Amino acid sequence: MRAFEKFMKYHQAEWRENHIISKQFGVWRDRQYPWLLPKDSWEEGLWEGISSKSENSLPAYLRETGVQKHTYAHHLNSSWTLCANLYFPFRVSDDGRAMLASFLQHYVAEEIETLEGIELEYAENGELHPSRLLGEMSGTRGRGQTSPDLGLIVNRGRGIILVESKFTEHSFYECSAWRHKGNSRRLGNPNPDRCNHPMDIVKDATGQCHQAAWGRRYWDHLVPIVDEEVLTILHHCPAARHGYQLFRQQALSEGIAQSGHYDLVVSALAFDERNNSLNTSLKSSGIAELRDWGTIFKGKARFAVFTHQQWVGWVQEHDTSGKWDDCLRYVRSRYDL
User: Fold this and answer.
1) Element (H, E) at 198
2) By the 8 A CB rule, do 174 and 245 touch?
3) How far, CA to CA in Å, does 70 sit from each of 44, 75, 140, 276, 324?
4) Could you tell me which residues are beta bridge partners of residue 270?
5) Less CB within 10 Å around the terminal CB: N or C of the chain?
């Protein structure tokens, strides 16, 4: 277990002891753990301002939109729940959206002036749906398709920021096709070694990337914008070992950007600055740290990185009325921020 993940699990167990009345532990692989809630008690891990009883109810939002909460939302160290606790509270009020807009202008793109919408597990409709853009045919928002954790609609609908939010994870997972053995639904990869030759993939993505055999269209959007100078120094496809989620989100963002529907499209990453394992997870690919991901592709969609600490610090500094004091106390205590 990585150092930050281990620390946070024990921190969550201690936080639970002091803040949650129920003492029943959740179960994972037939064992109980103090940092897990029972699955049907996942709401106990939410700040009260987004609980079922609040005006900005996250459970009600899930019911109304059909968004699927994460399978492990009952884990107290769930990145999905952290994302909800840190960003969803600012969804329904003008001053909340203005607060986040000013943060995004400073850390993501200086053109951002307003924020109109905050959506979880974001997906476009029609031609920009993941099934059309990426060939992901069987998913829904939050399950089985590329749905960024946050979709932030900015500049009166003329811009969109797609955010992948991480917490204690140590990577962005390996490509689902890399070492796939095959099953009743999908052909296995006949030659995983192809994934170790990224320039060959770019020259013939249809023949060299096994995702293409499954009908996936990631490289359709990324081949035209890849920086070949950077790609030549990589040891394998940037998606293969630990970059799969970033790769898919980059493809989605570029497809949306090329549509011309938005003036500004950003693929963004939010993570905990203490998680060094995640920050260096792409080293085996030849990418030193997460911010360097943005050097691989030079398209219309930008890439940006910010930390949860930067966001919490921004709210602390700019909340002159004290409206968000309770929320700040909760997330600082809950996540040791």
Assistant:
1) helix 198-203
2) no
3) 15, 10, 12, 24, 26
4) 165, 306
5) N
Q: Say what the pTM is.
A: 0.96
Query: Residue 190: how many CB atoms within 10 A of its CB?
Result: 9
CB within 8 Å of 101: residues ≥ 6 apart: 112, 113, 114, 115, 154
Q: Give the CA diameter of the chain.
A: 61
User: Helix axis angle, 325-335 relative to 3-19, nearest 10°?
Assistant: 120
Q: In what order do the strands lie in the sheet with 115-120?
A: 115-120, 150-154, 159-165, 264-271, 302-307
Structure tokens that stand for 90 in this block? 């600012």
Say if strands 264-271 and 302-307 run parallel, antiparallel, or are unpaired: parallel
1 has pLDDT over 80: no
Question: What is d(CA 224, CA 27) in angstroms, rounded to the nearest whole number?
Answer: 46
What is the helix, strand, coil percentage profile of the chain, to 5?
A: 45, 15, 40
CA 155, 161, 162: angle at the middle one, nearest 5? 155
Q: Write the pLDDT tens digit of every residue in 250-292.
A: 999 999 999 999 999 999 999 999 999 999 999 999 999 999 9
Tell me: the pLDDT tens digits for 4-24? 999 999 999 999 999 998 889
